[in-house]
Write a structure and sequence with these properties.
The chain is an alpha/beta fold. It is built from eleven helices and ten strands. It is 49% helix and 16% strand.
């Protein structure tokens, strides 16, 4: 799915579906990319030819810089804000409900919603350049929508560290110690080899067994269809504040 800026593409080979998203602004996530990601994951999740999914982003630097500042600053009503942040809710819920196991390939830094994507994957393989940060509080919002997925993966204490100290990067090793990453490698080639090895193993594993495992992994999250949209409404209200608008404008000037 091509856009004026960015894309969501997917391919299928030997039972391994690869979903790749890209945006020229450090792989940020505008509404169109979020919508396409959710739709692609939902569609692939019901394709019997797919045994496992690899989620990746384009380029060799940033994995994902989170919400699009251009779209955030253009929000004028709470309804518009809720709709935008619900895009993150729809992607996380699509990943959660998908019957296939999802491997995240994380080649570089991840911010905000990008950390949420990693947390919503079932297994994440990264390079040591893949530092993470939940920057939302620094712009007056808070990681409300991605928070449940991140907290589920890393636990309440590590989630609080990320959410409260919103301007500090946490290293890939920190992310591995706190279970956000399953494996970390020093080079992209080593990471890609590890992703390929695991994806191939899973492509030859029992689809029924993997689907049952996925249910166990996500047990207790059935209310997220409602919860994450409620969280989106909180962000949709806060994004209208003068604090947030001023903070986003300051960040945009730095860019």
């Amino acid at each position: 799915m091509q856009h004026k800026e960015g894309y969501v593409n997917h391919s299928l080979e030997h039972g391994i579906a690869t979903i790749e998203f890209f945006h020229p602004s450090s792989n940020s996530l505008p509404a169109a990319i979020l919508n396409d990601l959710a739709k692609t994951i939902n569609d692939i999740g019901i394709n019997d030819r797919v045994k496992v999914i690899v989620l990746k982003s384009g380029g060799d630097k940033v994995f994902c810089s989170g919400a699009s500042f251009d779209e955030l600053i253009a929000i004028n009503t709470m309804e518009e804000g809720t709709k935008f942040f619900s895009g993150f809710a729809h992607v996380i819920n699509a990943m959660r409900r998908c019957h296939k196991l999802i491997i995240a390939r994380v080649q570089g830094k991840a911010v905000g919603g990008g950390v949420g994507l990693i947390a919503a994957a079932d297994y994440a393989i990264a390079t040591d350049a893949a530092a993470v940060k939940l920057s939302e509080l620094a712009v007056g919002i808070g990681p409300f929508v991605v928070g449940p997925a991140v907290e589920k993966k890393v636990g309440p204490s590590a989630f609080a560290q990320l959410a409260i100290d919103a301007t500090e990067w946490r290293s890939a090793e920190w992310a591995k110690r706190n279970r956000l990453f399953a494996e970390v490698y020093s080079t992209s080639q080593e990471m890609d080899d590890a992703v390929a090895r695991l994806a191939d193993k899973l492509a030859h594993s029992s689809p029924e067994a993997m689907a049952e495992l996925k249910k166990i992994f996500w047990k207790g999250t059935e209310e997220w269809d409602k919860l994450l949209v409620e969280r989106a409404a909180i962000s949709g209200r806060l994004v209208l504040s003068d604090f947030t608008r001023n903070a986003i404008n300051k960040f945009k000037k730095k860019d």
